[in-house]
Design a protein that fits this description.
The complex is a heterodimer. Chain A is of the alpha+beta class. Chain A is built from 13 helices and 16 strands. Chain B has four domains: about 120 residues, Uridine Diphospho-n-acetylenolpyruvylglucosamine Reductase, domain 2 (2-Layer Sandwich), CATH 3.30.43.10; about 120 residues, 2-Layer Sandwich (Uridine Diphospho-n-acetylenolpyruvylglucosamine Reductase, domain 3), CATH 3.30.465; about 110 residues, 2-Layer Sandwich (Alpha-Beta Plaits); about 80 residues, Alpha-Beta Plaits. The chains are: A alpha+beta, B alpha+beta. The complex binds flavin-adenine dinucleotide (2 copies).
Chain lengths: ~400, ~475
């Protein structure tokens, strides 16, 4: 079902005879667990910007609006989507563009997350339909709002398991006048993370901090000429600030090695590629995303190399993208390494039977499992919205 | 007096055995039940409302909190969590039959990790205490409520507090990584950690701003940030609220996001100037304090751009600080605003609605009209970049009719905020103060959804049952 308005979503849920698979364009179907549902309910028919006030830094759009369209609309006013929601379709084997509803429902953030917060941090408000077929508004259209329980944050990242998001209102910011990227060559992961930690701990407002091994860097046009592993730090601001800060940061990073610079145009393309995880798009096998404290990132890379997997780091080492064999043994290695590092994993791409069988995200503490089941029932008492998407049987 | 839920009479009847039970869980000094010693806990920053609790407990460890919660839930005793008690919405107001769980003895900083830019602190650490602990290494904890000397991180988490610098750095919710909580039945649970993204539902986001409705927070993992090289303020005065509002629009649409952008109207300017002698222009109708960060050259660049924008809005005066001392002088009046209004009128209500910034001139005009018709003075101080309004309504507490008028005036302002597309509270929380206005912002369906959410965490409605939700309905759902 692809209703063209919110009333259609309400009707679809009210009349649903059984479970519904909830999706936008389905660009992220490969992640998490496959949903066993006879019917699919898509928000792809709910499109268009419904409100935009550039001076108030606020934009609203129906859930099926593509990220690309939204980014274009705000770019016309010199603004950008703060969390840089990535376009993961290619990585996840889909030719579909991501929707903004999907980006919010999956709480997916790009490289700027490390400095400016996650997708969910910029969701000012949303409209959604819960599993009872009731329309809910959460948050609003103002930047500061603490009225009542924060249903907005709860629904962001809930992967369609509590309610179908029909419209989102986002905070946007002026896009930077200038970008630059500082590049260190040849660093092994541990040195790279130390350098990125120094960069992120500097007063220069670094807004991207990534590491790619040589074989992945070779796949990125703006990096291939460098050769070897690359460690990357991005600056974004007014031109005089970027000029000043890049010189200062270059001096601070000198102890880690020679520093190259990428200009504005190269930086723009590069960080889109990193956010979209482009270097791993053609990698065979499974893809995992691991979130750890940054200093643990290098250890994860080492553990993954031991099982023949390839990694790239974002968020200063705190986000590890892993490409490895689609085997249960590889998954268990991911689990073990992540647990030891005190982080969390998410299965992003894997064969269906396989991802039904494993824990695609870590099981939470038992107390939260019980509360989580009650929260699910509080929104979706019949259990019809994306059952089993995150956890088997829930 | 604010209406309270009907006390649980069986609990009141078992008072002595409940207090004795609590004493078995905590050291001698950790349980307070003598009427005189309960006095300091009977109110919070909204001191017009008072209620002595049944008892106060002051745990020192998460395990003690867990034992208290297990005991209270098995005994069916209501609980009111409390940090420093600076809530301006009556968030920490006790109930007659409730045990207040005060977190102030849990005031240790447990871990600071500069490489990973985070710190783990107990819930009773003050907001400023975090920044002080990391400032020697030029780090800071960003959200800076003006109560930061007193208020505690557990309270900040539960109110999702903001500050003057949240236009750049976000509010509490945007600066948290993890929590240790105790559920209503006494289970200890870790939420999030030192990593950025959680998997599964966003419990951290839901618990933030939950006003003590869902769980007790005992530890908080916060992000700490490297301080900027420097910061400097400027002051711009205008002939009308409209012009100042248009100037705010021009600044934002120029692509500059100042770290702070504060707005004061004429009564606020006069009150603050009389108090602080900060050199504010008394002939102005509206004034902006604008702060930028960076190296001296970057500050010069940004302040130059902003001055040029202000100059296009026919300013009465523009004053760019040339030193840290001059910046401090500009901030002095704003920071002393509460004290300043307190000098004109010992009693005032601090309101906290948020409006779309485009509505600013219209809303200030309506507030002025209401002020005249209620016969009560009001001073407006406002986080202009994000639309968070702080009208200070002055009244005379010795005159009950004056207080009731002030409350009605405040309610009218908040309804206006919702009417123009804003919300009831930007940072102070609903508490008891705005509980009965929730229906103005939310439909009954939306409120029921939130109540079911609370019930999922707190099936017996033992946590802060007198707050957030309109009373009758709260009891109905309980
Ligand atoms: C002079 C003054 C200026 C202020 N300025 C600002 C400002 O600029 N910005 C702003 O946002 N606020 C401001 N406030 C309001 C207030 O300081 C904040 O709401 C603050 O976060 C409250 O912290 P607290 O420790 O005093 O909490 P309390 O007032 O004790 O409690 C606040 C709420 O949180 C609950 N709670 C407290 N601790 C816990 C815990 N550990 N676990 C579960 N629930 C808990 C309480 O039950 C209550 O509902 C100001 C207040 C004053 C008096
Ligand atoms: C229970 C309770 C007890 C209190 N007790 C006291 C008390 O004993 N004494 C007292 O003075 N007050 C007290 N207060 C009031 C409250 O703490 C005041 O907000 C505080 O006193 C302000 O003092 P300050 O000027 O030193 O503020 P500061 O702590 O210096 O700062 C206040 C605000 O201004 C911001 N700020 C600081 N420097 C800058 C800058 N350069 N640029 C921009 N912004 C800046 C801070 O981040 C903060 O938001 C109490 C409040 C409560 C609720």
């Amino acid at each position: 079902m692809i209703p063209t308005d919110e009333a259609g979503i309400v009707a679809a849920i009210q009349h649903a005879a059984g479970p519904l698979a909830i999706q936008g364009h389905g660009s992220k179907l490969a992640m998490l667990r496959p949903v066993q549902a006879a019917a699919t309910l898509s928000t792809a028919g709910l499109t268009g910007v419904t409100f935009y006030s550039p001076n108030e830094l606020v934009i609203s759009a129906r859930a099926g609006t593509t990220i690309a369209e939204l980014a274009m609309v705000v770019a016309k006013n010199g603004q950008h989507l703060i969390a840089e929601p990535p376009e993961l379709g290619a990585l996840l084997g889909s030719d579909q563009p991501g929707t903004i509803g999907g980006a919010v429902a999956a709480n997916l953030s790009g490289p700027r997350r490390v400095a400016w917060g996650a997708m969910r941090d910029h969701v000012m408000g949303l409209r959604a339909v819960n599993g009872r077929g009731e329309i809910l508004r959460a948050g609003g259209r103002v930047l500061k709002n603490v009225t009542g329980l924060d249903v907005c944050k709860l629904l962001s990242g809930s992967h369609g398991t509590l309610a179908v998001i029909t419209e989102v209102t986002l905070k946007v910011l002026p896009a930077p006048e200038r970008r630059a990227t500082l590049v260190l060559k040849g660093q092994p992961p541990a040195h790279a993370v130390a350098a990125l930690s120094a960069a992120l701990g500097s007063p220069y407002a670094v807004s991207g901090a990534a590491w790619l091994p040589a074989d992945l860097a070779a796949l990125v046009p703006s990096l291939s000429w460098l050769g070897g592993n690359v460690t990357l730090a991005r600056l974004e601001d007014f031109a005089p600030s970027v000029a000043y800060r890049s010189e200062r940061l270059r001096a601070e990073l000198a102890e880690f090695g020679a520093v190259e610079m990428l200009d504005d145009a190269a930086s723009a393309v590069l960080w889109t590629d990193i956010g979209n995880v482009s270097p791993l798009v053609h990698a065979p096998g499974a893809i995992w995303k691991i979130s750890v404290r940054p200093s643990q990132g290098a250890g994860i890379v080492a553990a993954m190399q031991a099982i023949g997997a390839t990694c790239m780091l974002d968020w200063g080492g705190g986000l590890v993208w892993v490409s490895g064999p689609a085997t249960a043994a590889a998954h268990h290695a991911v689990e073990a390494a992540t647990r030891a590092a005190g982080g969390v994993w998410t299965v992003m791409r894997a064969p269906d039977p396989w991802r039904s069988a494993v824990a695609v995200i870590p099981p939470g503490p038992p107390a939260m499992a019980a509360i989580g089941a009650r929260v699910k029932a509080a929104f979706d008492p019949r259990g019809i919205l994306n059952p089993g998407r995150m956890v088997a049987g829930a | 007096m604010i209406e309270q839920p009907e006390p649980l009479h069986d609990v009141l009847a078992r008072r002595d055995s409940i207090v004795a039970g609590l004493r078995r869980l905590l050291p001698e000094s950790g349980v307070i039940a003598e009427p005189l010693r309960l006095k300091p806990y009977e109110t919070d920053g909204l001191s017009a409302y008072r209620q002595t609790p049944m008892a106060v407990v002051l745990p020192e460890t998460t395990e003690q909190v867990a034992a208290i919660m297990a005991f209270c839930s098995s005994e069916g005793v209501r609980v009111v969590p409390r940090g420093a008690g600076t809530s301006l919405s009556g968030g920490a107001l006790p109930m007659e039959d409730a045990v207040v769980v005060g977190l102030m003895r849990m005031n240790r900083i447990l871990d600071i990790d500069y490489a990973d830019r985070c710190a783990v602190v107990q819930a009773g650490v003050t907001n400023i205490g975090i920044t002080q602990a990391v400032s020697a290494r030029q780090f800071f904890y960003a959200p800076d409520p003006s109560s930061q000397l007193a208020c505690m991180i557990g309270g900040n988490v539960n109110m999702n507090s903001g500050g003057a610098h949240c236009l750049r750095y976000g509010v509490t919710a945007n600066n948290l990584l993890g929590l240790k909580i105790v559920t209503v039945d006494g289970q200890i649970v870790d939420i999030g950690g030192a990593h950025l993204d959680a998997a599964g539902l966003d419990w951290l986001g839901l618990l933030t701003g939950s006003e003590g409705q869902l769980a007790i927070v005992t530890e908080v993992t916060v992000r700490i940030l490297r301080s900027p090289e420097g910061a400097r303020a400027m002051l711009a005065a205008f002939k009308s609220n409209e012009i100042a509002g248009a100037c705010v629009d021009s600044i934002i649409s120029s692509g500059i996001i100042p770290v702070a952008l504060e707005f004061m109207d004429r009564p606020a300017i006069h009150a603050c100037e009389a108090f602080a002698h900060a050199g504010y222009p008394l002939d102005a109708e509206a004034m902006l304090i604008i702060e930028v960060e960076g190296s001296v050259a970057e500050q010069d660049d940004l302040l130059g751009r902003i001055s040029a924008i202000c100059a296009r809005h026919d300013p009465i005066s523009l004053k760019v600080a040339e030193s840290a001392e001059q910046s401090a002088a500009i901030w002095k009046g704003r920071k002393g605003a509460f004290g300043a209004v307190g000098r004109i009128s010992p009693d005032y209500l601090c309101m906290d609605g948020t409006i779309p910034t485009s509505q600013l001139p219209a809303v200030l005009r309506r507030i002025g009209e209401m002020s005249a018709s209620y016969g009560l003075q009001v001073a407006n101080i406002f986080h202009a970049g994000d639309g968070n309004l702080h009208p200070l309504i002055m009244f005379d507490a010795n005159d009950p009719s004056s207080f009731h008028k002030a409350e009605a005036f405040g309610a009218d302002i908040l309804k206006l905020c919702v009417e123009v597309g804003g919300c009831l509270t930007g940072e102070h929380g609903v508490g008891v103060e705005k509980r009965d206005l929730m229906g103005v912002q939310f439909t009954e369906i939306e409120l029921d959804q939130q109540r079911r959410l609370k019930s999922a965490f707190d099936p017996g409605w033992l946590l802060n049952a007198n707050k957030v939700f309109p009373l009758t309905a709260a009891l109905r759902a309980a």
